[in-house]
Structure formats: structure tokens, C-alpha cells
Amino acid sequence: MKIATYNVNGVNGRLPVLLRWLEETKPDIACLQELKAPQEKFPIEAIRDAGYQAIWHGQKSWNGVAILTRDLPIMEVRRALPGDPEDLHSRYIEASINGLVIGCLYLPNGNPAPGPKFDYKLNWFKRLTVHAQELLASDIPVILTGDYNVMPTELDVYKPERWLNDALFRPETREAFRNLVAQGWTDAIRKRYPDEKIYTFWDYFRNAYARDAGLRIDHFLVSAHLEKRLVAAGVDRHVRGWEKTSDHAPVWIELTDG
């Protein structure tokens, strides 16, 4: 089973890129972030024509998450991260698919830091950590994937010295990610490639993609049930070089059947 995550940076504006990638790679499950579309503007007909069904949580202009499946039944479990009923951002959706629970997330950016946006990021991280612990306690196979907006280590960022005060790389952010992983999650990309420089995001500015001045901020965390089933993982970095593409590249893992 191939499972992917992709921050599309606008599902309607990048729809040709998304459809081309789906046709090329045919993931069984695809988690999307940053739809930037209200609920009624999600391009469900085009997605269905491509062979996928979907659940999604849209929001006008910002945020938005979706889970697509190909030839697999999908049952929505929740469409908001627990812990703050007043948080109206569309940043989390969770589904039960083929014996897996998959949480698709778009963690807040948090800049400028320090400040209210950074506080929101850290609070969201705390809520995610609480919910993640509950998912692990359920003793079922779980994947938490998406745009975490954090570079966990210096290996995950081009010229780390330039990012020390950025919300994506501040010590508080990296500590929050470490605390989350320490619950018993496996960082799938690092499990497969423990020492390699791997990026998932390249800014549109300063010719970042051509210079490979990137960041690794899109992650797969898998529960212990799935660590032994993990047989491959990677980044479709060539997609970042396509015309009118997202500033993120798709990330994927492959699991053997349980």
C-alpha cells in the first residue's frame, strides 16, 4: 500500500499538477494540505474522474485538509483536532481506511516568533500530542502525516544558522516534535534514510529549488504496528520542478499488507 502526503498550496490553482501527480504515481491514499478552498469549492468531480474518493475540510482562502483514496473505503472519524472548540482553522482530518487510522494535518506556521501566532502553534502542538497519545493507546495502526512546519534537526534544513529564530526551527518547536515522537512514533523518512539530506519544501524565491536550498517539514509518523511493515519511503522531488507547482513536493511511504 502506498500512502502519500502533499501540501498542494491551493487545490484549485494547482489542480493540473495534482491530477498529473496522481496519474503518475497512483498512491492508494493521498493526504492533502493547504487546500485554500471553501468546502463547496473542493474539486470533487475532477478527483472522482481521476479514480479517487475523498473527504475534506475546507476553509476560504486558507488552510484546508483532505484525504483521498483509490479503491479503498474511507470513513471519516473527525474533522477537527480535539482540545479547543473555538479553534475554527481547518487543519486536521482523520479517517479509518482499510484497517488504518490516518490523521492528515497542517500544523500552524507560527511566524513571527515570539508572538500570538507562535503561541497558537505551540498550543496546537500540545493538542496534537495529547490526541496522538490517545491514538497510540487505542492499540490500532495509526499514521499522522502532513505539513508539520518543523525541521526536526539541522540535517533537515539548508543553512540552519539562518533559521535559528524562525518558528519552524526554534528550540521550542523542535522540542515539541521530539516530545511527540518520543511517545512511540517512528519518523518514517528518517527510519529509511537516517543520515541523508532530504528536503520536502523549496521556497519560490532566490532560486531555492535549483540550488537545493530546502527544508524537510512534511513528515510521516507511524505507530509501532506499522514500523515493521514499512518497506519504502521517499520524496517525489521532481514534482517541485513542474510548471505552476506547489512549493512542497509529495512525500510517500509504502507498507506491506498487515
The helical percent reads 10-25%
Q: State the CATH architecture.
A: 4-Layer Sandwich
Give the radius of gyration: 17 Å
Class by SSE composition? alpha+beta
Please provide the count of β strands: 14
Mean pLDDT score: 97
CATH class (first level) name: Alpha Beta
Count helical runs.
7
CATH names the topology as: Deoxyribonuclease I, Chain A
Distance between the termini: 10 Å
Listing every helix as H and every strand as E from the N terminus to the C terminus, the arrangement reads EHEHEEEEEHEHEHEHEEHEE
Main β-sheet, spatial strand arrangement: 3-4-2-1-14-13
Count of domains: 1
| Low-confidence regions | none
Proportion of beta-strand residues: 25-35%
Would you kindly provide a brief summary of this structure?
Its cofactor is Mg(2+). The chain is α+β, with helices and mostly antiparallel strands. The chain has seven helices and 14 strands.
